[in-house]
Amino acid sequence: MKKIIIDNSKLTKIEKDLISEYNMILDREKELSRSIKKMKLKIRLLKTKFDSISDKRKKVLKKIKSENLRILTSCSVVCDKRWNSYICIFKNSKSQKSIYLGKHHSIIKELSPFYNKKEFDNSSKFVKTELKKIISSIQDKIIKLNDSNEIILVKNKLKNIIDIYSESGEWDFWSIEK
Asked: Global pTM?
């Protein structure tokens, strides 16, 4: 777009004002267009830097996985709604092991010294999150890794896990009644 340049003597004041406004808007538009081009260039540069850093992070993570799988052993607690029972699954890139934790009512009975009765309220979601928190906090005492980085279960009963948890002292609430 080009600026409008016309002999001013033949124009009315309104026409002169409109042309002046148009030319100002055109200047601002060109200025913003240049800014957008500069920003696009900056974005491209940042994108290449981001991709480079992301690749480095992936390579380091790959090295970590090959060196020490204990750090990357995940723990998840799953509820089987058909039987109202829970299992815990330990998984790393080399192996996967699971522990049967028990039925809902027996788990609540085992965990009752550590929680208010109001907190349970027959909520499987609450039980799952608390079991995961408990097991994750003492994971290194429940599982070990052999020379080929496969998971070996050291403790495989809920009672043993709860005993280790009670010895750890990481609980917030303690009730005398059972």
From this structure: 0.60
